[in-house]
């Protein structure tokens, strides 16, 4: 109890302490200046390449997390392809423009959670329904949130004996295609885990199940000196922090933070407030980046916090505060339309405005004293 109280006090203190405007030179000192966005469809590929070349690169972005999922012409499992997916040649164009501009690519294929969306069962569980953690719950019955089944997104069963044969083949193939050693597994918003109706997971500790899956993925990647990135929400205690169901865990997976390898890179997303949970992850020994969405003021606050934490921490701690990764949750095509034609934006709070705000910060020239 004392440890929890001390952590809350420390977080509260740091929240008050770091609220300062970023200096003109300090944003460029961040090791990670990233963007997480869906991979474009083939019709928007050329415009996406232009966006990287003319917008991200001049603003010194150096990381691009691309949600590929099934939008690739997989050869290992062609049954999982989306219609008209990106080809190996298409991906090579993205790789080349990123390499020429010093931008590292981390492809993302959602593992464990996010195996469905609303009424749609995504490719993995559609083709391999035996992997479903909750086969008795039907996505076609989805009626919005909340609903009687507690259905948001389905998960695969991490203890199914054949699931990793499939997903690891896909992971290896997409990493080869993007010629990279960084992989993002998603792992966010996992509400279905250790379900009572699952013949393998029933009665198991949810934190141990989550940690086991993270560790299994991490160890597979480590065989080829590749590194795992995940979203951090399932590792935060939603009850103690008051952060709640979405940006933290209310089903006890948070204890997995003490069970997973410390070389997992944490993408700490918070969209409504600049929650100071990056401190917790750094104190636990993880590299961490703060991840804003559609509120530019929150993004700039997170940027300021990250800079101040790097400036005011011990060298060992400071190096764990890696930077900022802006997130985009519309499709790449719609985002690009909004970016180049702001009149098409329907909401005052926009991920385009967040990205543009960060571009302005990263593009500022250092002051000369």
TrEMBL record:
Q: Which superkingdom, per the lineage?
A: Bacteria
Look up the signal peptide feature and give its range. 1-20
Annotated GO MF terms = beta-N-acetylhexosaminidase activity
Q: Describe the location of the Glycoside hydrolase family 20 catalytic domain by residue ranges.
A: 85-292
Q: Tell me, what is an example of a GO biological process annotation in this record? A: carbohydrate metabolic process
InterPro entries, A to Z: GH, Glyco_hydro_20_cat, HEXDC-like
Pfam families from the UniProt entry:
Glyco_hydro_20
Q: Does the keyword Disulfide bond apply?
A: no
Keyword annotations from UniProtKB, A to Z: Hydrolase, Signal
Among Gene3D superfamilies, the record links this protein to: Glycosidases (3.20.20.80)
Similarity comment: family membership = Belongs to the glycosyl hydrolase 20 family.
What name does the UniProt record give this protein? Answer: Glycoside hydrolase family 20 catalytic domain-containing protein
The lineage, from the top, is: Bacteria, Pseudomonadati, Bacteroidota, Bacteroidia, Bacteroidales
């Amino acid at each position: 109890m004392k440890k929890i109280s001390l952590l809350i006090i420390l977080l509260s203190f740091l929240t008050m302490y770091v609220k300062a405007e970023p200096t003109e030179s300090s944003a460029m000192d961040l090791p990670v200046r990233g963007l997480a966005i869906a991979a474009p469809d083939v019709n928007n590929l050329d415009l996406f390449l232009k966006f990287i070349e003319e917008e991200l690169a001049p603003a010194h972005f150096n990381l691009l997390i691309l949600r590929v999922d099934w939008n690739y012409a997989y050869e290992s499992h062609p049954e999982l392809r989306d219609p008209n997916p990106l080809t190996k040649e298409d991906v090579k164009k993205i790789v080349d423009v990123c390499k020429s501009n010093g931008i590292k690519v981390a492809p993302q294929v959602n593992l464990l959670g996010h195996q469905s969306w609303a009424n749609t069962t995504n490719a993995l569980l559609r083709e391999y329904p035996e992997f479903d953690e909750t086969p008795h719950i039907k996505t076609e019955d989805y009626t919005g949130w909340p609903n009687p089944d507690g259905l948001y997104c389905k998960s695969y069963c991490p203890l199914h004996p054949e699931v990793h044969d499939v997903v690891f083949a896909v992971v290896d193939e997409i990493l080869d295609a993007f010629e990279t050693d960084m992989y993002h597994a998603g792992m966010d918003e996992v509400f279905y885990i250790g379900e009572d109706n699952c013949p393998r997971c029933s009665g198991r500790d949810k934190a141990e199940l989550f940690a086991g899956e993270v560790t299994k993925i991490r160890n597979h990647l480590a065989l080829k000196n590749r590194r795992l990135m995940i979203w951090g929400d399932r590792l935060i205690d939603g009850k103690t922090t008051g952060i709640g169901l979405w940006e933290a865990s209310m089903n006890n997976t948070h204890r997995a933070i003490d069970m997973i390898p410390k070389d997992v890179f944490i993408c700490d997303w918070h969209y409504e407030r600049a929650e100071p949970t990056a401190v917790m992850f750094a104190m636990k020994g993880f590299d961490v980046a703060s991840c804003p969405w559609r509120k530019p003021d929150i993004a700039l606050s997170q940027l300021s916090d990250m800079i101040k934490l790097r400036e005011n921490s011990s060298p060992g701690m400071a190096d764990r505060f890696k930077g900022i990764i802006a997130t985009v949750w519309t499709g790449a095509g719609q985002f690009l339309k909004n970016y180049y034609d702001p009149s098409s934006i329907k909401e005052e709070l926009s991920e385009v405005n967040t990205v543009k705000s960060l571009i302005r910060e990263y593009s500022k020239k250092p002051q000369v004293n």
